[in-house]
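Run log, item B.
One chain of 152 residues. Sequence copied directly from the ordering sheet:
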Amino acid sequence: MIEIDRYNARILQSLSADGRISNAKLANSVGLSPSACLRRVQELEQKGVIKGYRAVLDRESLNRSFLAYVAVGLSNHGIESQREFEKAMSESHEVIECHNVTGSIEYLLRVEVSGTNEYKKFHAETLGSIPHVSSISTFLVLDSTKDDRGYL
């Protein structure tokens, strides 16, 4: 377990906002020497606090502006049914996130596609072909006023 002191907290906050910040700028912004800052970043990476770095992509530029959250219920709650569903979702390029949740459904999906025709195809050919899928509820995202995934 690593201690998240004020310096580590600042480092994580800065890297969350800009994963490409240079070590010199990062060190200056958190009030450390470049060598001390680099050691801390490397320790945060080695301990698994920092799992990786990502680019934030523009969905519209990639023709994936249709965003939906999909609640999926299974008729069989056994581990094999879950594994089968999760494997199918991991192989689906339309599914960006797949979460096993509690409540009246088993899974919550984040789905990104180009439009309604592609979503209809995903709904019928992917979700509709998986045994034990008993319910599908789609929530179309009209606008996202806040999206801080990856930020502290």
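Observations after the first pass:
- The domain at 66-140 is CATH 3.30.70.920 (Alpha-Beta Plaits).
- The chain has a mean pLDDT of 94.
Flagged for discussion on Thursday.
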